Amino acid sequence: MEASRILPDLQCSVLCEEVRQEVTGNLFLIGVIDAIRVPQLPVVAFRLMIFNRWTAGVGQFVETVRLLAPDQTVIQKTETRFAMKDPYINATSVSLLQQVEFKAPGPHFIEVLVDNVLKVRYPIHVLLVAMPGQPQAAPQAPQPPTDGTATAS
């Protein structure tokens, strides 16, 4: 007896800047993202892509990808339908998130679900960093003299 439906396993999930396809049909990922480093917040990311590879499944499925803020609110969500006819083949999906606004630093999360079953949840840290040519810290106000003399205001 053949299985009519087997929930697939998530082989990998990668956040990147772009996914392209070669003439051979192979995919390559550009700008794999381990953290989002910005000089100030809020900031808008023009485009982010999530590459997911599914394996060992049979049937028709709905993949849901969610990007969550540090407070666990959903920033953006995509849904993709895909089918797998044979458990010995893979299915690949690429989710596109556009105009993503990051308002706070800290760990954001990517969640990948299939048919409302959570398969993976991983952090993407939004970090505030000084860019080259920018001062490391904001200038401080002048300090009062330490010899006990007062200054006129």
Please give a structural write-up:
With 153 residues, the chain is mostly beta strands. The chain has a single domain, classed as Macroglobulin (MG2) domain (Immunoglobulin-like, Sandwich). It is 0% helix and 59% strand. The strands form 2 sheets. A 5-stranded mixed beta sheet has the order 3-9-8-5-6, with no helix packed on it. The protein has a 4-stranded antiparallel beta sheet with strand order 2-1-4-7, with no helix packed on it. The radius of gyration is 23 Å and the shape is elongated. The chain starts with 8 loop residues before the first strand and ends in a 25-residue tail after the last strand. The mean pLDDT is 90.
SSE blueprint:
Layout: E1 9-21, E2 27-32, E3 35-38, E4 43-55, E5 59-68, E6 74-84, E7 90-102, E8 106-114, E9 117-128
Parallel strand pairs: 3-9
Antiparallel strand pairs: 1-2, 1-4, 4-7, 5-6, 5-8, 8-9
Low-confidence runs (pLDDT<50, min 5 residues)? none
Distance between the termini: 90 Å
Count of domain modules: 1
* CA-based gyration radius: 23 Å
CATH architecture: Sandwich
Strand content: over 45%
Helix content: under 10%
Biggest beta sheet summary: 5 strands, mixed
Number of strands: 9
Helical/strand content category: mainly beta
Shape: elongated
**CATH top level class name:** Mainly Beta
Compute the number of helices. Answer: 0
Quick summary of this structure?
This protein has strands at 9-21, 27-32, 35-38, 43-55, 59-68, 74-84, 90-102, 106-114, 117-128. With 153 residues, it is mainly β.
